[in-house]
Amino acid sequence: MDNKKTEQLKKYTVNNEGMHDLTTNQGLKMAEDEFSLKAGQRGPTLLEDFHFREKMTHFDHERIPERIVHARGVGAHGFFQLYESLEEFTKADFLTNPSKITPVFVRFSTVQGSRGSSDTVRDVRGFATKFYTDEGNYDLVGNNMPVFFIQDAIKFPDFVHAVKPEPHNEIPQGASAHDTFWDFVGQNPETAHMVMWVMSDRAIPRSLRMMEGFGVHTFRLVNAAGRSHFVKFHWKPVLGMHSLVWDEAQQIAGKNPDFHREDLYEAIEKGQFPEWELGLQLIPEEDEHKFDFDLLDPTKLWPEEEIPVKRVGKMTLNQNVSNFFAETEQVAFHPGHVVPGIDFSNDPLLQGRLFSYTDTQLSRLGGPNFHQIPINRPVCPFHNNQRDGMHQMSIHQGKTSYHRNGLNANQPAPVPEESGGYAHYQERIDGRKIRGRSESFLDFYSQAKLFYNSLAPYEQEHVKKAFSFELGKCKSDLVKANAIALLNHVDRSLAQEVADQIGAPLPNENREVKSDKKSPALSMADTVLLPDTKKVAIVRVGDPDVERFAEWTTALTEKNVNFTIVGHKLHDLPNPLKVTATFETTDPTLFDAVLLVSSESTIPAPALAFIETAYKHYKPLALALSDHQALASARVRLDEAGVYDLAHSTIEAFINGIAQGRFWKRQL
Questions:
Q1: Do 507 and 542 lie in a common domain?
Q2: CATH number, position 572
Q3: Which residues are catalytic?
Q4: Do 281 and 249 lie in a common domain?
Q5: Largest CA-CA distance found in the chain, in angstroms, rounded
Q6: Is residue 409 part of a domain?
Q7: Whole-Å CA distances, 222 to 42, 285, 338, 597
Q8: By the 8 A CB rule, do 38 and 44 touch?
Q9: Contact 210/108 with Cβ under 8 angstroms?
Q10: Which of 152, 416, 636, 641 has its CA 20 to 30 A from that of 63?
């Protein structure tokens, strides 16, 4: 670059490393940058909050056209059907009519990485559902974790800036294991609960079909009589909750970065349709203050043992998209897309999202008419006085485009609430305008402790290793020390082990929350265990007995288990032993279990490595060998849990092992 150009660029250089007053883009010095302006500490966010609006609008328009967060996603179509009417709680039509089948579109995503990042990174997963109801589109825009990092939306740009690749070198991609993210965590103790979830196995799901979904925020359901219940939404996977192990997730990122999207696509193509049950946690409005947590705090969950999840319907995904860009990339979600009978709480993170999402769609999808893109169009008619604008796709007729009007009999006309018109719940609001945080939001650590207490021993071990990996990647001693100080509030032994691993100081004073309270629902250890749709690699060495081989593959097929035959080279001619993948084209990390079938006295190194990797990741193994001495050099113990010698065991026992998934006794 020539000197003239260098000098020109210097004029526009802003150095933020020195001491500066924080101002708006207009130069106004701001006294507060952590809290949005609310009507009372627990009240709704106010439209006049120009600072929040400026900050969030700038953030929403920072990337064109890729989503700033949730850029890498995959979507599918399906339907939802209710089990029984919920008219006691809501007047929403799709939640009160069990005979109605409501079309849906679901988009799953990672948060941090770009569109080109890997599926299996350690990250939160987005779980956004668009219901095309007869009363309009309803969007349930959530994640696979029930809480979030921050309590107030004004800090969302800060959180995302911290977790994104660092701006000076755009590293790392699709990862939170770096200084700026953990610096944010250390400076914002409200993150404590969420980072426990992100360091758990929930952040590396085995499949999008095998993870929970949550609406995260507290919403309202309002029935026809005007009675309100606070509600949290859950998606419970029929296949249960299952995860990868970290070493496996890293290998898959290199072997098949499209692992999750391919898994979803193939399952639907095979007719193995993913299913989730919709669950509701409900609290009558009058019971709002009966708990030891604030219902409006998005860093808090509602323990299922205290507030049970009522399963009310099922969602099935049964159709892949026809065009990824037109559907998955152009779908526009918004938590403010609601229908009568569903309303909002004053959760300050939710309140900010209600401002933000329209801005994002304007930037990404080219203007105010993004709702006319086919994937976003309601299935019911829509009429209003909005005209023109970029990418207008409708040809409007008529002389009037305003309300009220006399020339067109005031059409289109508002609809009274009793006839189905949307009316906001009339909540009483009292309070001064204030930037601040309610004292009821100041408990940062008790639910982080609850989550850790609730995990099985092997899950706790994974959390320790995850913290050690992530903080071990940080360069700053200050960042490491502050993160350990935060963990010291959650669990002293956890903080001590991680500190020892990363060479950081452990605070002298033990500040651990003293609680042995547990919530079994937070552990994945007792999840549904099914063999259905899991994937088995049948490693073929030599020419095994065709009849027995056919018996095994038939048994797998009958239990809805998918299998791939792996060998040294592909075969041209079709036969029951046909090899369809080689050691070069596939990998044991891409399967849930391995069956080694050998008629030889020597097993080649690639086949041994295949079963050793699966064994290392605690997966079930089945062995059908003509010569057991061929395994003498393998790092596989035949007497370990989850290893089935088909000379003495049965294929049915192996299938039961596939259902179990992992044999964690090998780890502990």
A1: no
A2: 3.40.50.880
A3: 70, 143
A4: yes
A5: 93
A6: no
A7: 20, 10, 12, 60
A8: yes
A9: no
A10: 152
DSSP string, 531-587: -TT-EEEEEEES---HHHHHHHHHHHHHTT-EEEEEESS--SS--TT---EETTT--
97-130 CB burial, b ≥16 within 10 A, e <16: beeeebebbbbbbbbbbbeebbbbbbbbbbbbbb
Report d(CA 148, CA 198) in Å as an integer. 10
Q: What is the pLDDT of residues 524-561, one digit of tens each?
A: 999 999 999 999 999 999 988 899 999 999 999 999 99
CATH of the domain at 489: 1.20.1370.20
Tell me the two tokens of residue 333. 């979600």
Domain assignment present for 413: no
Q: What is the 3-state secondary structure (H, E, C) of 235-301?
A: EEECCCCCECCHHHHHHHHHHCCCHHHHHHHHHHHCCCCCEEEEEEEEEEHHHCCCCCCCCCCCCCC
Boundary of a domain, candidates 334, 353, 376: 376
Same domain? 542 vs 470:
no
pLDDT in tens, 21-77: 877 777 677 778 889 989 999 999 998 887 888 788 778 877 657 888 999 999 999
Q: How far apart are the first and last CA of the chain?
A: 58
Shared domain for 261 and 136, answered yes or no, is yes
Structure tokens at 250: 């890293």
Overall residue count recorded for the chain in this entry: 668
Domain that holds residue 49: 37-376
- Residue 274 sits in the same domain as residue 189: yes
Q: Are residues 585 and 612 in contact, defined by beta-carbon separation less than 8 angstroms?
A: no
DSSP secondary structure code for residue 311 in this structure: E
Place of tokens 């979030």: 148
pLDDT at residue 4, rounded to an integer: 54
Please give the backbone phi and psi of residue 82, each rounded to the nearest 5 degrees, phi first: -80, 150
Nearest to 349 by CA among 294, 289, 397, 290: 294
Q: Do residue 124 and residue 263 come from a single domain? A: yes
Based on the number of CB atoms within 10 Å of its own CB, is 653 exposed (0-12), middle (13-18) or buried (19 or more)?
middle
Q: What is the CATH number of the domain that holds 140?
A: 2.40.180.10
Q: Which amino acid is at 452?
A: Y
Looking at the fold, whether 542 and 518 belong to one and the same domain comes out as no
d(CA 289, CA 572): 69
**Of the candidates 376, 411, 428, which is a domain's last residue?**
376
Number of domains in the chain: 3
- Please report whether residue 263 resides in a domain: yes
Distance CA 610, CA 614 (A): 7
Residue reference for tokens 């041209």: 572
Answer whether residue 454 is part of any domain.
yes
Can you tell me the distance from the alpha carbon of 201 to that of 272, in angstroms, rounded to the nearest whole number?
Answer: 24
Q: Are residues 595 and 506 in the same domain?
A: no
pLDDT at position 129: 98
